[in-house]
Amino acid sequence: MDNPDLLKGKLVRLTAEDPKVIAEANVRWARDSEYMRLLDSNVSAPVSAKKITEWVEKDMEKDPPPEYIFMIRALEDERLIGVIGLGGNFSPHGEAFVGIGIGERELWGKGYGTDAMRVILRYAFSELNLRRVVLDVFEYNPRAIRSYEKAGFVHEGRVRQYLHRSGQRWDLIFMGILREEWMASHPDG
Amino acid sequence: MNEAGLFAGKLVRLTAEDPETVAKPYAEWARDTEYSRYLDSNPPYTFSAKKWKEWLEKDMERENNYFFSIRTLDGNKFLGFVALFELHWQHGDTMVAIALGERDYWGKGYGTDAMNMMLRYVFTELNLRRVSLIVFEYNQRGIRSNEKNGFVIEGRTRGAMLREGKRWDFIWMGVTREEWLKIQETA
């Protein structure tokens, strides 16, 4: 069996971090409301470091972990740039939800997110042996939609006018990728 | 999709039970050392019903708790349990354990039927790929029952047990999804 460095991509690597490091980065990024509105359908609001730290620490106690959440670091300078994770109840149907956020806005649109997504898909399909990975993305986030298409996700449906923001209505778009589709485009795993 | 009940077989059904209800029978069966020696490699020991109840309640809190009680279809008699442990979702593999506490029901197909129900649950509801178990070399009845359900001997831990002055192997048996499905077709 080949042993590629499973969590390393071309531009980024996925890492485990100290809860305090995770909390500090997420609190800082949460101050950027554009980031929050791209990331989350929840009402954008600042978050406390203590709350995140406690939540991460509680999660770390559970075995198996309820989610597989990683921080994203740029390979070239080890800079902490974002967060990505697989969650939801995987079994018995073998599906996971994936979510990603690139907190450092100067790095948007440069391929970092797509690379991180490729790494987590490899983890999902060759380590967790899942059958499908699904995500949702907002209609007003075309950069992300393009990134997910590049990573192999296929449009599966839309929840019409799900979001109400800035006086407008926007669709919630669901995209998914099947194990067979991923394996066909990654014969070497 | 096949809508036949998942939890009823030919002789038995699988049920969830209140720890309060089953703790007493479990404690009583454990006083039968032949039963204990078939089930467990630990020295037979008597636990109180209270301890059984606490242990069962704690077990119910675990993730991936698939612990079923076995009752007869005819008469609803409580016979024993069949349960999964060491379940690894990413590999699609699990271990199974079964025990019938009522000795009058040994060797009559009740255990085989209960195990078959569990296999059906594992392969058609949990979507796992294979099931493993350990049976003790001196439990010929258990070995034969497992073979009827498609289990194949995969290995032995030689002389793992020392009982009555003799050494006995742990026998590892396994059945894959494909093998079990094939048996169902021809059954």
Characterise the protein shown here.
The complex is a heterodimer of chains A (189) and B (187). In chain A, helix 1 packs across helix 3 (49-60). In chain A, strands 1-2-3-4-5-7-6 form a seven-stranded mixed β-sheet, with helices on both faces. The termini of chain A are close together. Chain A has helices spanning 19-30, 33-39, 49-60, 112-126, 142-150, 179-185; strands spanning 12-15, 68-74, 80-87, 95-102, 132-138, 154-165, 168-178. Chain A has a domain at 12-133: Gcn5-related N-acetyltransferase (GNAT) (Aminopeptidase, 3-Layer(aba) Sandwich), CATH 3.40.630.30. Chain A is an alpha+beta fold and 189 residues long. The relative contact order of chain A is 0.15. The mean pLDDT of chain A is 92. Chain B has helices spanning 19-29, 33-39, 49-61, 110-124, 140-148, 177-186; strands spanning 12-15, 67-72, 78-88, 93-100, 130-136, 152-163, 166-176. Chain B has a seven-stranded mixed β-sheet, sandwiched between helices. Chain B has 187 residues and is of the alpha+beta class. Chain B has one domain: Aminopeptidase, CATH 3.40.630.30. Chain B starts with 11 loop residues before the first strand and ends with a helix. Chain B is 35% helix and 32% strand. Chain B contains six helices and seven strands, in the order E-H-H-H-E-E-E-H-E-H-E-E-H. Classes of the chains: A alpha+beta (189), B alpha+beta (187). The interface between A and B is small, with 9 and 9 residues.
